[in-house]
Amino acid sequence: MNEQKIVFVVAMGENRVIGRDNVMPWHIRSDLKRFKALTWGKPMIMGRKTFESIGKPLPGRESIVVTRDPAYRAEGAHVVHSVEAAVELARSLAVGLNADEIAVVGGGEIFAHLMALADKLHVTIVHASPEGDARFPAIDPGQWVEESREKHEPGDKDDHAFTYVVYVPRAASDVT
Q1: In angstroms, how far is the first alpha carbon of the chain from the final one?
Q2: Model confidence over 72-86: pLDDT tens digits?
């Protein structure tokens, strides 16, 4: 059963930084609202560090946490030990949720492992270049094409200006 699309939801700096010391190096409330809208009612795949940075399972979604630690437990979340097991579980949960997408929300290693399976990338480019220890993989223009782009000035509770960019696989687009 492969009908659910795998979509990435990520905010990254202009230097592809997505985190530093297990936290996001900015606060953009507008993007948090977008994140909620894009992930609501869907299974979400994330690494252990990402789950711990969030601090709890988010309401309205099923959290799937990938860790190498066989003893790891996360109350209210599903724990698996490989990205393959995460995708398999997410597909099963998506059926029960009547969801047509599975959201991959981080971190860097999870994004890198699942990039080849992604059907769409919802990227928020934060107009800053913070120091960080976690990065989003490079988006290969030979593999991906922009579907849309929206630039935003910072709102009341946003640290920086940002741009929403949606990428689709080049093979799936009408661009040659």
Answers
A1: 29
A2: 999 999 999 999 999
